[in-house]
Each structure stands twice: as C-alpha cells, then as structure tokens.
Amino acid sequence: MPERRRIYRAWLRQEDLTFFEVKVKETDLLLGVRRERFSSSLVWKVEKLVREQRQLLEDYLRRDPAFAAALVPHKPLPGAPPLAWAMAGAAELAGVGPMAAVAGAFADLVGKYLGRFSREVVVENGGDIYLKSSRQRIVGIYAGNSPLSSRVALAIPADLTPLGICTSSGTVGHSLSFGKADAAVVLAANAALADAAATALGNRVRTPEDIEEALSFIQKIPGVLGAVVILGKHLGVWGKAKLVPLLPANS
C-alpha cells in the first residue's frame, strides 16, 4: 500500500493546485485546492472535521458491530451518524457491506467541505478519489503487476465533476476482495457509491472471461457513470471512463 499511495499521490499533484495531507488514525488524506484558497487554518479545519466524524462513526460501530462486519447491505440503527447512512445507502445500491464505502464516504465528506472554499478540489483517501474541477484532469490507474499498470489513465472532463473515482483490487493492498482483478475502477456520482461499486465489480472478476459480465452488472447500478477492469494484460472499459496514455509527465 505505501508504494501504491506514493504513485497515486505523485499523479495527483497537479501544478495549479496546492496539496496538503491530513492523517487521523487510519484516515490518510491527500487534499488539493486552488493555491490562493490554501491556508494553515484550512488544514486545521479539515483535521477537526475528520476527527469529529471518525469519532462519531467509531462510537456507532461499537453500538452496532454487525454494521462493521457485514458483507452484504446492512441498515443502520436509529440515531446512526450521517456518514453511516451514506455508507449504507451506497452499499445497498452495490449489494455489498457498508464498510466497502467507508473510504469513499470520507472522501465525499471532506471534498464537499473543501468545495465551500475552492472550486478546484481533489481528495484522495487510500486510492479512492473525490474530484471537483473546472478543467479536465488526468487520473492514472495503478494495477499492481499488470503490464497495463501505470500505463493508462482516466481523462475526466470538468462537466463530469464533482464525482467519485474509486479502485478495488484483488492483488494490491489489504482491502477485502473476493476477485482477482488487478484494478476494478468505478466512476460514480459520489465517492461512497464509487467505492462500494468498485468492490462489487472487483468481486466479480476472477478470470478474463468474467470481465464482460462484471461490466454488464455494474451498468445496472444507479449513479454509476463508468468502469474499467484490468486483469493481467486484459482490459475492459464501459461508460464515461475515457482512457488515455499515462505520459511520463503525469507519473
């Protein structure tokens, strides 16, 4: 995961933005805003937001441990924090457990907050991304040992944002996946949904023959905009996922 994080973060550090990091326990964020909108107080405000929301979620998980353990959709208990409801809603659409959406849900939370200060926002949380932009952005795809890894990227037009871009992998990192995809990438209306849907997509890919059926499945989830699957030398693409070469200048 450290190697993957370094690669993602090198790709995301675009010259017109100022980037900073916020780390609270397992939540490790890279954040980008317009240069003139950055300030040390903004870093403090984001860290405070993340600490508060993590505490609310941790308190809730102690009250409802089944929520954390579920591998299928799970309805939150009354009084659950908004973050838990966002995770559960995304998981319900994708047919996975709510914790599959936790990184994306935090990316959404922070991204929307930063959007109050900057019209350009990038939030990366463990390879899961919230993006709001007034210009096209290039987002590279890391796919472990696949020969396509670090060779292709997504071109994201401004009018498609804000959106979530999230990746699941059965060969990279420690996140739970029942599949073997080197990268299952989903573009969706928000990062929580993209995160949950990427897990569902990755779970369905064990061999190259599974790619077409998995992409057919993902098309049926409301709010999903596009998807990419990489398994070894095999590649599948659907929807508004526009692939371009990842040039050395972006790596």
Topology record:
Layout: H1 2-12, E1 17-24, E2 27-34, H2 40-63, H3 65-69, H4 82-94, H5 102-114, E3 121-125, E4 128-132, E5 137-140, E6 152-156, E7 163-168, E8 183-188, H6 191-203, H7 211-218, E9 224-231, E10 234-239, E11 243-245
Helix pairs in contact: 4-5, 4-6, 5-6, 6-7
Give the key terms.
251 residues; alpha+beta; T-fold; 8-stranded antiparallel β-sheet; 3-stranded antiparallel β-sheet; 25% strand
Would you kindly provide a written description of the structure presented here, covering whatever features stand out?
The chain is of the alpha+beta class and 251 residues long. The protein has one domain (2-250): ApbE-like domains (T-fold), CATH 3.10.520.10. It has 7 helices and 11 strands. The strands form 2 sheets. An 8-stranded antiparallel sheet has the order 1-2-3-4-7-8-9-10, with helices on both faces. The chain has a 3-stranded antiparallel sheet with strand order 5-6-11. The longest helix has 24 residues, at 40-63. This is UPF0280 family protein. It comes from Ammonifex thiophilus. InterPro entries: ApbE-like_sf (IPR003374), UPF0280 (IPR007183).
What's this model, at a glance?
The protein has a single domain (2-250), classed as T-fold, CATH 3.10.520. It has helices at residues 2-12, 40-63, 65-69, 82-94, 102-114, 191-203, 211-218; strands at residues 17-24, 27-34, 121-125, 128-132, 137-140, 152-156, 163-168, 183-188, 224-231, 234-239, 243-245. With 251 residues, it is of the alpha+beta class.
